Amino acid sequence: MQTAADAGDAATLLAAVPAGRRVALVDPRFVGHVHALRLGLTDPRFAAATVPGALTAQPEARGALLRALRRTTAAVGAGAPVVAPDTDPAPEDRTVPGRIAVALEAEGTAVKRPELGSLTATVPTDAGARATAESARDGVDDEAVRLRSAVKAHDGFFTTFAISPYSRYIARWCARRGLTPNQVTTASLITALVAAGAAATGTRGGYVAAGILLLVSFVLDCTDGQLARYSLQYSTMGAWLDATFDRAKEYAYYAGLAIGAVRGGDDVWVLALGAMVLQACRHVVDFSFNEANHDAVANTSPTAALSDKLDSVGWTVWARRMIVLPIGERWAMIAVLTALATPRIVFYALLIGCSLAACYTTAGRLLRSLTRRASRTDRAAQALADLADSGPLAQGVAAVAPGLRGAFTAPAVALLGTLVMIGAALFLPYGSWLTVAAAAVYVLLSGLAVARPLKGALDWLVPPFFRAAEYVTILVLAARSDAPHAVPAAFGLVSAVAYHHYDTVYRIRGGTGAPPQWLVRTIGGHEGRTALVAVLAAVLTHAAGFTTALTALAVAVALVVLVESIRFWVSSSAPAVHDEGELA
């Protein structure tokens, strides 16, 4: 830390700092909480950030910081206030860090101003103001504030009242011993995998141990995010781990339950795969709706207004959060039923609970979409196109087909294709080449659905329809096959493809766009994979080769998407983010 005599001296000192380091400017008169400075100066997610009296810049914003500092110094002198005569800036903008933050924003560099709440951060100009600021600082325990802010604001009922009251202290314990969120995330994954292994034993003792370990894994899953917020340790690797491990843990546990049930003489692989398919389709409904509407213009509706009114009634907030069966409630239910009942009961409860939750959330989204008058942006249309995961076959159709006009045309065409594909898989004789013909129709309709930008009121339904078509087709054809172990192989294939779709979502959420087109083309797109599975079912009708083919396809897809995903998330281009919303 070095002390600068004035703004000109500060520019000289900053220029001497190696280019790859973060720098900060702090007014020597600053009075406030240490945690206020942490929030303003140590959060790695933002190129530049400020609190009253302090400013920081990451390496990517260093150039803009120096330019702003030198420009304002040259304009008014090193020690003079840099304020135009006709302006009346806020008090925090009269300090050197405050003035430079304003100058950075004027140049086009985004400057994050974190919410401080009850924390104090100010630059007093006289003894009276300093005494007042010190009194305000001393009257608030910033450690208590830090602990409270480590907990997400919109967690589910179970997480809020059964986990967070003590997991935040586990997070603090980890922080004081130098543990990182990534280490806690990895511990959560390992614990869940051990739980899956315990469930796979098929014994009552194994089921009880699995239920307990699953809850421990969830406590650690909450702790890693609270540790990241408590210590402001956000990272690109952490974003990737946090985004993907929840799904890996849940689906590995489903597989463990299915293996344990088979050992007990009850084959529930179809139920396990059905639960995974339903959960993945629920998520893509949420993702698509949010991406379609988060930057929409005139984004209002009577349904949204009613929801806002209900939010003012406390119990309705918790009731609606529980109805959607978020991850906390879902894992608690799975853990308790595993310990007390059978895997079949666990999956029945999952299928019923998730189906009701899906109906509730989807109905609300449909009502909002039909009653709002929103204009969707090009970015939203691109996000939906990326979520659609159209491969070379559908893209080829879209390139030569005229775009179908109509407010609800795209989702109607996608729904028709989905019904054709699933209906053929369900009702045509297994292995029939008519199913392959239905797949060709599905490819054609998939291309027509995305031939125009997805800006219609219900166009966010297109990706969920495509997910349902692909996942359910794989499930049905594997279940109807006589090939041994076809459904477990299909479980692996859907897991690999679902990972690709979740990876796409989190890249879009991080603002870096979807995976590269070469990846989508390599793994065929949703329509290519669906058609391929239909062809394999027809060619390998009465042979164990269908299981081998599904397994090989699952391994190939998993290798390609995992290698590219790992390359991206550990690269410098990946966003340093942390999921602040509870995924259902």
Structure write-up:
The structure is a single chain. The protein is mainly α. It has helices at residues 7-15, 34-41, 59-76, 96-107, 127-138, 142-149, 157-176, 181-199, 204-231, 236-263, 269-293, 302-311, 314-323, 327-340, 343-371, 378-388, 392-400, 409-427, 433-449, 462-480, 486-509, 517-522, 525-539, 545-569, and strands at residues 23-26, 31-32, 48-51, 54-57, 121-122. Strands 1-4-3 form a three-stranded antiparallel β-sheet, with helices on both faces. A two-stranded antiparallel ribbon has the order 2-5. A hairpin with a 2-residue loop joins strand 3 (48-51) and strand 4. It is globular, with a radius of gyration of 27 Å. Residues 80-88 have low confidence and may be disordered.
Order of helices and strands: HEEHEEHHEHHHHHHHHHHHHHHHHHHHH
E-strand count: 5
Main β sheet profile? 3 strands, antiparallel
Whole-number radius of gyration?
Answer: 27 Å
Helix content: 55-70%
Ranges where pLDDT stays below 50 over 5 or more residues in a row are 80-88
Strand order of the largest sheet: 1-4-3
Indicate the mean pLDDT.
88
Q: Globular, elongated, flat, extended or rod-shaped: what is the shape?
A: globular
Number of helices: 24
- Helix/strand-derived category reads mainly alpha
Distance between the termini: 45 Å
Query: Which strand-content bin applies to the residues?
Result: under 5%
